[in-house]
């Protein structure tokens, strides 16, 4: 019997993340007397940093291992770094917040690490079982994190809703995977593609059905219309730091697997999925933006805006050319900075027992907390797509990719949507600077770690807007060999 | 082949047959005196008061969940035991990693006091 | 001759078990008392286990009995007992448009899958599954694949189990 080769260097970043997860878990129970759990956050940060450093050392090489199930290529590298940045920022903003909201548990950080591990597996898996297990590891961790605030009914509702719908979506995904296996006899992405090409299975009903199921399964994870129903309630109810993690990390992970599976396993079905995704992209952008206008809670507004952003990214997915796919990568990275930044501001504006998540709470804080408001303004303008911020460049790449592939209507609808979105992003800014406060918000405590995250997010957003070519060329190098 | 399961099938048939036989035989052969008390569902103890649906504490849930998860772990031991002779140390190490990771969870559960019935 | 009888016998067992399992699942979804539903679920799982054996997949049959009919149903029963059932029992089944739409969607997906699977014979490569060695020793075949080719996913499963345990503890354990 042939024994498999095991190359642990290949998964070194994943091992580090998992090992630190276990370490945090154990340290927590052995030193459970300590009230302040922030030190566990610092341990996690060390782990994330270390994993990122290891990932960077693998840059430039393409190596496949574990019987061809796992690949460490540019694409995996880009997403590993994106996920690690997201996890890093999330841990930073969590340390003060969890203490304040009474959910300072060691498990919190361990679960963030495990969720990150799942995301990394999703991006680097070249076998559908790995992608599925990564998705489950990520999702289950997030279900738990969303329900951490057990005493808060909204948090429990968020966790339950997310769990039930997420489990349902997982079922769809699994069914799709099973049908692919039935039609091709393999779960390796490359084998699936070559088998479909060699046997000419492009009109095979089983594969077409599996395409529908995969679209539904991933559609849930990236919060695209019509699979977005859970998003506002879950984003509103979950702890704000976890909302930031979900809106950026889960979305990025969902897209990483979606792009990898569709482009490397099912490239022959491109005409089929293009028309489906065209509709989904337009619906996602439009519904997200229009409903966001009428929201009065900032977390719900950001939830709908996150739906809209999934729509913009899908525009690039429909375009499907080099610029489009590298645009997806760029967009997800830029979105990570600006969205986590915005949620950090939401966190910092609250205090114990007084979350201040209504949009009218933002009235008049502009001069009271000038730096916080300036940062929030940067993030909101970036999301609206105002130059010279990261969000603008991301949208620019996405829409020009669509134009390049002659999807003019899609690009026009995208730009129109983007114009609509300016309204509700600017509304918050206007409230902050040009309105009298309805009531005084005093006694805010700015946790230094969260402020550090805010600074990092501002730097990231500005950097990606002013020097976009560095990140874009990295993204373009990353997708080599994917398609 | 499936013929190996014939023994199990015969065994099931005999078990059901014996149970049926015992019930039917005692029904036919035994003497019976019907009284209201004897027809009651319980021969002894108290008659139930109120609804029999009662909410149980969530403590049961943790135990059940942990049992389920360790049960899944045990299921993997079964094919492992079958191929162990063939793969020797390789199989040992791969299972040691698996169990080792779950051991961490076990320590966590233990120290957390989730196995205690407060 | 003997083989023909064997095939006939298998066929009869299949028909019986398949019929019982369908009956059990119908009863499962129509009973009002959820405990009864859980018991029919056990019956259904056991029947499906027999179907797996008829397909020469002993390992899945064992999982079906040990994990599904054993542990998962136990968990379901506990969860049923955690809930306040009397409210549920009183409310009963009600018609609603979401249920109607859901029913149509379910029908649509069922027909889609049915058509996809039945219209054309499966196109996948036939794997290494049906050799006489594998049939008699399905567990060994599973073990050989699980601990070589699928070793990496196997180890990931352990992390997944850890996450689930942490979740069970953190969400339901009394907090200090």
Detail the topology: elements first, then pairings.
The complex is a heterotrimer of chains A (about 475), B (about 120) and C (about 180).
Chain A: H1 12-30, H2 38-57, E1 63-65, E2 70-72, H3 74-101, H4 106-124, H5 128-146, H6 153-184, H7 189-199, H8 205-221, H9 230-237, H10 240-264, H11 270-293, H12 298-319, H13 322-348, H14 370-384, H15 390-404, H16 408-434, H17 448-466, H18 468-478
Antiparallel strand pairs in A: 1-2
Helix pairs in contact in A: 1-2, 1-4, 2-3, 2-4, 3-4, 3-10, 3-13, 3-17, 3-18, 4-5, 4-10, 5-6, 5-10, 6-8, 6-9, 8-10, 9-10, 9-12, 10-12, 10-13, 11-12, 11-16, 12-13, 12-15, 12-16, 13-14, 13-15, 13-17, 13-18, 14-16, 14-17, 15-16, 15-17, 17-18
Chain B: H1 6-29, H2 36-39, H3 59-87, H4 89-112
Helix pairs in contact in B: 3-4
Chain C: H1 2-30, H2 34-54, H3 58-82, H4 85-91, H5 97-119, H6 132-136, H7 138-146, H8 151-172
Task: Tell me what the structure shows.
- The complex is a heterotrimer of chains A (483), B (118) and C (176).
- By secondary structure, chain A is mainly alpha-helical.
- Chain A has one domain.
- Helices cover 74% and strands 1% of the residues of chain A.
- Chain A is built from 18 helices and 2 strands.
- Chain A has a two-stranded antiparallel ribbon.
- Chain A is globular and about 70 Å long.
- The mean pLDDT of chain A is 92.
- Chain B has a single domain, classed as Methane Monooxygenase Hydroxylase, Chain G, domain 1 (Up-down Bundle).
- Chain B has 4 helices and no strands.
- The longest helix of chain B is centred in the middle third of the chain and has 29 residues.
- Chain B is flat, with a radius of gyration of 25 Å.
- The mean pLDDT of chain B is 85.
- Chain C is mainly alpha-helical and 176 residues long.
- Chain C is globular, with a radius of gyration of 21 Å.
- Classes of the chains: A mainly alpha (483), B mainly alpha (118), C mainly alpha (176).
How much is the average pLDDT of chain A? 92
N-to-C series of helices and strands of chain C: HHHHHHHH
Segments of chain A where pLDDT lies below 50 for 5+ residues? none
CATH topology of the largest domain in chain C: Four Helix Bundle (Hemerythrin (Met), subunit A)
Strand content of chain A: under 5%
**How much of the residues of chain C is beta strand, in percent?**
under 5%
Shape of chain C: globular
Order of helices and strands of chain A: HHEEHHHHHHHHHHHHHHHH
Rg of Cα set of chain A: 21 Å
